[in-house]
Amino acid sequence: MNIALIVAGGSGSRMQSDRPKQYLELQGVPVVVRTLRVFDDSALIDRIVLVVPGDDLAYCRDELIVLAELTKPVELVAGGRTRQRSVFNGLQAMAAAENDLVAIHDAVRPLLQASELAACIETAAETGACILALRAFDTLKKAGTDGRISATLDRESIWLAQTPQVFRYGKIHAAHVRAKKAGIEATDDAALLEVTGQRVSLVPGSQQNIKITTPEDLALAAAIAALS
Description:
Blueprint: E1 2-7, E2 25-26, E3 29-30, H1 31-41, E4 47-52, H2 57-68, E5 74-78, H3 83-94, E6 101-106, H4 114-127, E7 129-135, E8 140-143, E9 149-153, E10 159-168, H5 169-182, H6 190-194, E11 201-204, H7 215-227
Parallel strand pairs: 1-4, 1-6, 4-5, 7-11
Antiparallel strand pairs: 2-3, 6-10, 7-10, 8-9
């Protein structure tokens, strides 16, 4: 079984909005609804777990899920204080089998392409763990504490992590349990495997799979969506 774990726990702080960014509209449709539809439309996904702030459970159940008109079952789970804790809550609630695949995805990446999701599912089925990522194409500079350049980095080996990040359930659940016990915090799920020496494959993504965190991101997403 392949399960989508959509994490929608963000606030509106960087968006300069009193509404969480996942509920803002993109071409008249809430961002999280567009994201849910990507996974609902995929024949590779069997069911969906949506993690949202606890105070938003009723709103998401009674309004957003109804609006989305999904064909696949959706389980709503209350998130935690951090993204990592929210993912852990979702993993705990889904009662998956060890070899099931879990595609963890940011709700505010609504422009994921079906082909990108399929490539991640295929790679994770072979290797057990992969992430969608984008090769760095700008020149990378490392800054010193004085605000000046201290080094120019080799961009050939640098990738920018995106989502989805797809894992065998047993692998990623065990990694989250270890991290929780050890007090380890990471900015993405793959890092929790990396700290134990486990290998995670890279799947080339695209620049249109942007993460909406600012008003400029929302405007860019609208422009991209209008062209697709």
